[in-house]
Amino acid sequence: MCCLSACQKGNGNSNSIAGNPQTLILGKWNLMQQKFTQYINNVKQTDTLVAASANDAGYAQFNINGTYVSESHYFVSNGNGGLTGGNTTIAGRDSVAGTYNFSGTSFNLSSFLAGLNVSSAISTLTGSASVPVITPVSHFAQINQLNSNTLTIHLEFVVTYTYTATGIVNTVKTVSDLYYMR
Asked: What pTM, to 2 d.p., does this model score?
């Protein structure tokens, strides 16, 4: 009897998919951690890591028909008492639905995935009191790791904010690395 095996070490930058990605990705994935970086006009404004908790959680559900749903929620008690004398709870929810597919080794999403609450870390755009026109420029999604228990996805989105009253244009790029487990 003869047995041959081979191993390949990854460097962290290459995709690591153990098996058929179209089958492995199916089901519900719980968001455990998110690394979030934001650039405004190519200058890094934010670089933070957020871990899931009882007050900050999310998931992505990939279905066999090529659709997905991604949701996150957060709750914060500020302890100010409010009108009732108890804690005031601030809550937020993000819900996204779209389609996904694999084309060879490429992973494509029609939209973004909901992430953990990083709103306190997001830089505020300045330049005008007018409401900006937001224009999507590009988006990119890549699976960095996928096996029966772990899914990591790298996302990049670029949009422009154009303030109509002043003509000021800001380009905002957000980069998220999402770490999921079953």
From this structure: 0.79
